[in-house]
Amino acid sequence: MNPLITAIRNLGGSASIKEMEAEVANLMQLSDDDISEIQYGSRTKYNYNMAWSRIYLKGTGYLQNSDRGIWKLT
User: Running DSSP on this structure, what letter comes out for residue 62?
Assistant: First the structure.
């Protein structure tokens, strides 16, 4: 969750899901194999974990999504 908060801060305090995922992958120096590992169906483990991180941070008041797909730090 810390890399996600750092990524959004680096992106100016708000970002789309695609921007966040790219910045977190860059910060964590993840390989293409790390990012593309399948969780189930066609959803990747990385995408799944990022979604849960956003939900958790929203529930604890660190993030909010003002527009569809746009998240910002509170």
Answer: S
Helix boundaries (H) for the chain: 2-10, 17-27, 32-36, 45-59
User: Could you tell me if 37 and 49 are in contact, meaning their C-beta atoms sit under 8 angstroms apart?
Assistant: no
pLDDT by 10s per residue, the chain, length 74: 999 999 999 999 999 999 999 999 999 999 999 999 998 888 899 999 999 999 999 999 999 987 777 999 99
Q: Which residues of 13-27 are buried (b: 16+ CB within 10 A; e: fewer)?
A: ebbebebbbebbbee
Q: Which of 19, 15, 28, 1 is nearest to 70 (CA)?
A: 15
pTM for the full predicted model: 0.88
Tokens of 57: 């941070």
